[in-house]
Amino acid sequence: MITEWNEFLSIAQDSNDFKHYPLLNEESPFVISYYQTLIKTELLQKNLLRPLQERMEANESITDLRHFSRFLHVEDIIYTDDIQTVVSKIMTGYAAIQSKDNLQFFALINLANPTEGLRTDNDTENEFSVVGPKVGFVENIDINLHLIRQQISTPKLIIRELTLGTLSHTRIAVVYLSGITNPQHIETVEQRLQTIDFDIIFDSSQLDQIMSDNSNTPFPLFLSTERIDRVIYALTLGQIVIISDASPYVITGPTTIFDFFISPEDYYLPWILSSLFRLIRIFGVLFSILMTPAYTAVLTFHLEMIPQDMLAPIILSRKYVPFPPVLEVLFLELTIEFLREAGARLPTKVGQTLGIVGGIVIGQASVEAALTSNILLIIVALSALASFTTPIYKMSNTIRFLRFPLIILSGIWGGLGIAIGLMFMLTHLLQLKSLGTPYLAPLYPFRRRSFADSFIRSSYSRTARRSAIMRVISQWRYDPDKATQKRDIDE
Amino acid sequence: MSTSIRESAMVSPFFVFFLVHANIVGIGILGFQRTIVSHAGYDAWISLLLAGASIHLIIWMLYFMLNAGSQDLFSLHELCFGKWLGKLMSFVVLIYVWMAAFLILRSYVSIVKQFIFPLMHTWSTTLIILLLILYIVAGGFRTVTGVCFLGVVIPAILMLPLFLFPFEYAHPNNLFPMFSHNLTALIASAKDAVINYMGFELVLFYYPFIKRAAHSQKWAHAGVLISTLLYVAVAIVTFLMFSHGELDKIIWPTLTMLKIVEIPILQRLEFIVISLWLFVILPNICLNLWGVTRGMKQLLGISQIRSLLLLLISLAMGSYLLEGTTPLLMALDFYGKVSLVFIYGYIPLLFVLFLLWGKKRSTARHQTPGPETENAR
């Protein structure tokens, strides 16, 4: 026991920020140990040193550690003789006090300073919406939990915490609504989290990958978001939310592929508009994936498909291009990818300038140098634009990726190659599962009722029922009859 | 013999509609018109209805036997023929099912060659499609069902509208005078049409994978009904478009008909249709192969992934050996005859045998678990 403590001391004292000294003066019967970098010095003085000094001056003799709780105004004092607890508490910003008579017994006082150096609020700049709240999550789990708790004020909101990461000891919270969320999903999540053995967890996106159902897929199986409203909505639909400390992104699951094309703004606009916008997003994805492969296929193999009137401009624009279409397409797609990567890595202002320089100058110049055709330039630019319509960043990355195998397949087998590639993709989607829930639902397995909020958003009176895909315990969110009274004409 | 099936591997009865429909409609719908008009002329659409009606009857027989206790083809054979003869018959049926898969694949590749890539070697296309099949069938029955579902829905959305275009050039007079052929001619044409309905018999394989399987019968009938109507519709559009003399010279009338479709930015849509037809033929091949792998597991105890690899190699070799259109047409003709025997000869025979003693045995087996009583024979 005591040797364990001494081992810890000998390692810790190599570090300059570790403090280990007798309290107040040399004659004092108590020894204190803590990490200076983890605690708030103000708290140490106000909560520990000053009251102790006052007692000393009043000539009260304090010999027992247990007397501390009598005069210290700290809520969080732990008495223990378990060295492991002591060490882990010291590592999270507690001060450990021992009596010189009995070195095996500790009082642990919370002086932690968790929010030091962290921002306390966040704009939702990566998932922007014009309408709706602008506050997003931050890097602190307590603030994040507070933000959620503030929105859902019911005791049904359950927060279960655990610690993960052998080096980082990151706090992870699993949040769900009891009585709504399927207990089987909760069990799956907790079981998967508990079996994780990993050294450092920086971000919830890592958890996403470690605990996903299929790690060999380009598709995200959990939705990660920084928007509070999206998380609240996910909770009310019976999904589970996983928060990791030090991560401004929160992941929700189980998800289906359609969730990734939903923007919170859809719920703030009239349902007719938002349905149209959702369809446009899905069409955007299809366009983005299929347009350049289609160009390759048609120009390589199926020139007959172009009507006579259109053939002339296409031939003219490709007149001086020396490459086969597939190389031309790959060249231009790569250029766009370079621009995108560079734009993402560079500081905002430089990135913007570079985008303009790259987009306009390189594009124009490569057409004039006869490296690509005008029409292809338009198609590639449009399909890049279309891929940005996806609200979730991870999904738009996936879409970015999917194009390339299709381009190569279409360069080899033309239209048949595209069909083969699409079928591979669809089969993969058929097999994917997120927390055991089919990824392609409500399409397959077919759930007619869940279509109300999938690729369209129906009116609120039609989305009163929770989606059956999540296999929730209670189905109704609210009474739809109360919301809309049915009336006949002229009544 | 039979292993119990996990709930998570099963599909809901509703999907039987897609399983039946997707497997009936396949390569045949691209070119069935020419064969059916040889006897009944342009009254052949009545023959299609007749053939469809007979398929309903056969489906009813199949479901009667399956519902009455025999879970699938293999236990049905065992009930009707006893252990060893039953196994032999199952094996023969497996070869028949394999042959269907092979002929569909081979026909599709030959259509691709004929219409899209006249100068291409067929082996590369065959190979990539076989890879795709491997990926699908290795995903298990649920994935195969999913492919059946998508293989109905996607082509329906994208292609059915195309059949409205030929109406521009329709000659309604082609259909008249109606009912000018006698019943014998109609039946003779119906006999030629039946090969296009093949694929429904796979219910003998996937029946145990359906939740509340007895309730799926109505969906099976619906699948046959919709397929029949689709055939009739396509046939009538074709008859309106081509005269009898023209039709005699066209191998794939449906595709030829789609050549006239033109939308402002694209023409010659048959390229898209043939490419997307992959979605229509894949369910056929995949479900057939899945059935064979399951059969080999039940009969010989070979793991499904191994037999799948074996089957794919056999398909590749077969495609390599069967070069050219003439042998393919001969093989298709042979297959048509076999399937006639299978549907109208073999299944009714099974039905009679099942009524004679199989049913008694199956109830006996259900009441007293243990070795089945041989004396019932």
UniProtKB/TrEMBL annotation, chain A:
<keyword id="KW-0812">Transmembrane</keyword>
<keyword id="KW-0472">Membrane</keyword>
<feature type="transmembrane region" description="Helical">
    <location>
        <begin position="279"/>
        <end position="303"/>
    </location>
</feature>
<keyword id="KW-1133">Transmembrane helix</keyword>
<comment type="similarity">
    <text>Belongs to the GerABKA family.</text>
</comment>
<dbReference type="InterPro" id="IPR004995">
    <property type="entry name" value="Spore_Ger"/>
</dbReference>
<dbReference type="InterPro" id="IPR050768">
    <property type="entry name" value="UPF0353/GerABKA_families"/>
</dbReference>
<feature type="transmembrane region" description="Helical">
    <location>
        <begin position="405"/>
        <end position="430"/>
    </location>
</feature>
<feature type="transmembrane region" description="Helical">
    <location>
        <begin position="375"/>
        <end position="393"/>
    </location>
</feature>
<protein>
    <submittedName>
        <fullName>Spore germination protein</fullName>
    </submittedName>
</protein>
<dbReference type="Pfam" id="PF03323">
    <property type="entry name" value="GerA"/>
</dbReference>
UniProtKB/TrEMBL annotation, chain B:
<feature type="transmembrane region" description="Helical">
    <location>
        <begin position="12"/>
        <end position="32"/>
    </location>
</feature>
<feature type="transmembrane region" description="Helical">
    <location>
        <begin position="44"/>
        <end position="67"/>
    </location>
</feature>
<feature type="transmembrane region" description="Helical">
    <location>
        <begin position="219"/>
        <end position="242"/>
    </location>
</feature>
<comment type="similarity">
    <text>Belongs to the amino acid-polyamine-organocation (APC) superfamily. Spore germination protein (SGP) (TC 2.A.3.9) family.</text>
</comment>
<dbReference type="InterPro" id="IPR004761">
    <property type="entry name" value="Spore_GerAB"/>
</dbReference>
<keyword id="KW-0472">Membrane</keyword>
<dbReference type="Pfam" id="PF03845">
    <property type="entry name" value="Spore_permease"/>
</dbReference>
<keyword id="KW-0813">Transport</keyword>
<protein>
    <submittedName>
        <fullName>Germination protein GerB</fullName>
    </submittedName>
</protein>
<feature type="transmembrane region" description="Helical">
    <location>
        <begin position="88"/>
        <end position="109"/>
    </location>
</feature>
<dbReference type="GO" id="GO:0009847">
    <property type="term" value="P:spore germination"/>
</dbReference>
<feature type="transmembrane region" description="Helical">
    <location>
        <begin position="115"/>
        <end position="137"/>
    </location>
</feature>
<feature type="transmembrane region" description="Helical">
    <location>
        <begin position="334"/>
        <end position="357"/>
    </location>
</feature>
<keyword id="KW-0309">Germination</keyword>
<dbReference type="GO" id="GO:0016020">
    <property type="term" value="C:membrane"/>
</dbReference>
<keyword id="KW-1133">Transmembrane helix</keyword>
<feature type="transmembrane region" description="Helical">
    <location>
        <begin position="305"/>
        <end position="322"/>
    </location>
</feature>
<feature type="transmembrane region" description="Helical">
    <location>
        <begin position="271"/>
        <end position="293"/>
    </location>
</feature>
<keyword id="KW-0812">Transmembrane</keyword>
<feature type="transmembrane region" description="Helical">
    <location>
        <begin position="185"/>
        <end position="207"/>
    </location>
</feature>
<feature type="transmembrane region" description="Helical">
    <location>
        <begin position="144"/>
        <end position="165"/>
    </location>
</feature>
